[in-house]
Amino acid sequence: MPETKFIRPFPALTPAQRYHLEVYGYVVIENTLSADETGRLHEAMQRLKRDLLANDDPSKVGVHNCRLSANKPHYLHFAHILETNPAIFDYLTHPRLVGMAEELVGGTVRLEESEAVINSRDPETDCSTPARFGFHTGTAPDVGSYTENGLYHCTFVKTLSNLTELGPDDGGTVVVAGSHKVKGDREAILAAAYEDRTLIHQVVAPAGSTLLFGEALIHATGQIRSDRERVIVIGGYTPTMFQAWNDQEPSAEFIAATPEHLKPLISGSDKWSWQQRRRSLDTPAAR
Ligand SMILES: O=C(O)CCC(=O)C(=O)O
C-alpha cells in the first residue's frame, strides 16, 4: 500500500540531544542514515557532479533544475538538488530528519532549499597556520528565533548530512558554539572565538550522520587538511508560511509528480495553516 500520511516522530530528539542543541545551537546525531541510504546518496551526488560538469555553463540551471552555485576545482556547491534523484528526494523527506527540523522550528515545516557540497583540500591551504573560516549566518538571534516552553527555536533550520567519514582533518562544518543566542557585533564574536578556539566546534562523525542547527548560529565550511573528499547534502526547512530560497522553488511539474502526502512539505502549500508543536525538555523522544 502506498503511504497516505506523512508520519514523523515528535519529539525527534532525546532530552540530552535537545539540551545540547539548546546550549550550543547545534547537535550532531550519528548514523541517522543507514549504510545503504548513505551509499545511494553518495552515488547520486557523484552522478550529479559528472552531469553538471558536462554542461557548457554549470552555473546555469541544468540537470533537473539544479545548478552549481560555486564551481572551483576543490569546491563545488550545488543549488536545488531536490529534483535530481529519488535518493535525494528520500533524504529531504526522511521522516526522522524532518521531525528533527520540526522540533527546532517548533512546528510543521516546508522545504526551503536543497543543497550539497563536494570539496577537497584547497591547494592554497597553509597547514602551518591556524585555520580561518568563512563564517556566516542565514538569520539572526531574535529576528529568526524565539523561546517556547523555555526552549530555543529557530525559523530557518538545516539538516546537513555527511556522506563521507569526517575525521578531525576532513573539514567538517565548524560553528561558534552558543552564538545562536548572542545578539551583538559579529566581528566581536568572531574575535573572541579566534582568541579562544575551544569556542569553535567542528563536526567529526561517521558517514551517514546529521548536523542539525538553526541558521542564527555562526557557522562555516571547515578546512580540509587530509587527502579525503568531503560530500555533504543539505536540507533547509522553515515554517510553512515562509518562502523557498531564491531560485529554489520546486518546479510545477515536480510538485505535480510528488506524492500527495508529501506535497505540503515540498511545495509549502500549507502556508498560514502552520501547526505549532511544543515539547518540554524532559519529554522522551518518540520512536
Ligand atoms: O560546507 C559546510 O560544511 C557548511 C555549509 C553551510 O554553510 C550552509 O549550509 O549554510
How would you describe the overall organization of this protein?
The protein is of the alpha+beta class and 287 residues long. It has a single domain (15-240), classed as Jelly Rolls (Sandwich), CATH 2.60.120.620. The protein contains seven helices and twelve strands. It has helices spanning 15-24, 35-53, 86-92, 95-105, 186-195, 252-257, 263-267; strands at residues 26-29, 67-72, 75-79, 109-119, 145-148, 151-154, 157-162, 174-176, 200-202, 209-214, 219-220, 230-239. It has a seven-stranded antiparallel beta sheet. It has a three-stranded antiparallel beta sheet with strand order 9-8-11, covered by helices on one side. It is globular, with a radius of gyration of 18 Å. The mean pLDDT is 96. 2-oxoglutaric acid (AKG) is lined by residues 117, 158, 160, 173, 219, 221, 232, 234.
Instruction: Give the tally of structural domains.
Output: 1
Helical proportion, percent range: 10-25%
Shape: globular
The overall pLDDT, averaged over residues, is 96
Which structural class should the secondary elements be placed in?
alpha+beta
Q: Specify the biggest β-sheet.
A: 7 strands, antiparallel
Q: Roughly how many Å apart are the termini?
A: 22 Å
The amount of beta strand, in percent, is 15-25%
Tally of separate helices: 7
Instruction: Examine the coordinates and then state which fold CATH places here, giving the name of the CATH topology.
Output: Jelly Rolls
pLDDT < 50 stretches: none
Fourth-level CATH superfamily: q2cbj1_9rhob like domain
Bound molecules: 2-oxoglutaric acid
Strand order of the largest sheet: 1-10-7-12-4-3-2
CATH architecture: Sandwich
Count of DSSP strands: 12
Radius of gyration: 18 Å
Please identify the oligomeric state: single chain
The H-and-E topology, N to C, reads as: HEHEEHHEEEEEHEEEEHH
Instruction: Indicate the CATH class.
Output: Mainly Beta
